[in-house]
Amino acid sequence: MKKHNLSVRAIVWKQIREAAGISFILFRIMIPVVLAVKILSELGLVKYIAAAFAPVMNIAGLPGEMGIVWATAVITNMYGGIVLFASIAPGLHMSTAQITIITGMILVAHAIPVETTITRKTGVRLRFMIPFRLLCAFLFGFLLHCLYSFGNFLQEEGRILWEASPGNDSLGSWGLAQLQNLLRIFIIVLLLIILMKFLDRLGITRLMNRILEPVLTSMGIGKSASTVTILGMILGISYGGGLIIRDVNLGKISGRDVFFSVSLMGLLHSIIEDTILMMSLGGNISGVLFARIAFTWLVILLLVRFIGKMSDAAFYKYFFRPRSHPLKNLPGDIVSDAG
């Protein structure tokens, strides 16, 4: 019995150490970026950046005021955008279609400084990921606008079902909230590791891979990345990205699998929590979930076909920065560490 207890304790500590290692990777990325974004917000520079987004909003059929909402979500996070939306939207009398469009755009592109820095650690270059998510968010909003306008769908005035409270803006409250967020990330990472090992032991991982393999294969994602891709889609890019970083460091996932997996997660992650959150703002499920899934599948499918025709040299130079690959002896610009 004593030996058994020691064995269980050793297993538990092993999982905790593994979770701490993954969390440390994420924290090294997230903490400097979160501090930089806070400074940017405190200096009032977000509103100047937001002004540049107003013309984009008009093309997507949205009031120009939504530019600051999207810009805030892009620069900070969804909750920053939600707070502004809840204070601005009621006076604009937006339609359900318009609310669905802006919430859909936020779902595709938010927390860009943090999330793209995490994805960079997987090897995907910033020069691709940042424009990719911003352009896809705009394209998604524009397509939703065309769809809803052409079919005259959801044109009634929207109802905001939930309003975010601004909360306490003091520096101490902000710092405490960030510490709570980091602790939450560590706990979720730990639970993810335990869940993955549990699913592996029960054979559920193999079953999930077999069921989803045709879908993931059609999007260019191989078996080695399927489990973490699914978890990232369900729980979020921070958690999925952290697990991918670990597997990349262990050499378990090929470069192209990593690239397509991270690209997919960039457009479609936290599909349960975030979808419910945006529906509580008045977004319609047709856009924030069903259309987003279809849009992501089509975009990744086209991306796979485009990248599939590309040489390894061009792929590594412009899209992916591997830790090591067969082309490591090529000229330095191909394997440089540039974003």
Task: Report on the architecture of this protein.
With about 350 residues, the chain is an all-alpha fold. The protein has one domain (about 1-155, about 180-320). Helix content is about 75%, strand content about 0%. The chain has 16 helices and no strands. The radius of gyration is 21 Å and the shape is globular. The N and C termini lie far apart (about 55 Å).
Which helices and strands, and how do they pair?
Elements: H1 2-42, H2 46-51, H3 54-59, H4 66-75, H5 78-88, H6 96-108, H7 112-122, H8 126-150, H9 171-202, H10 204-218, H11 223-235, H12 237-249, H13 255-267, H14 273-280, H15 285-308, H16 312-318
Helix pairs in contact: 1-7, 1-9, 1-12, 4-5, 6-8, 6-14, 6-15, 7-8, 7-12, 7-13, 9-12, 11-12, 11-13, 12-13, 13-15
Structural class determined from secondary elements = mainly alpha
State the total count of DSSP E strands.
0
Count of discrete domains: 1
- What is the H-and-E element order? HHHHHHHHHHHHHHHH
Please state the average pLDDT score: 81
Output the radius of gyration.
Answer: 21 Å
The major β-sheet equals: none
Large-scale geometry: globular
How widely separated are the two ends? Answer: 53 Å
Helix fraction, binned, reads: over 70%
Strand content: under 5%
Low-confidence stretches: 325-339
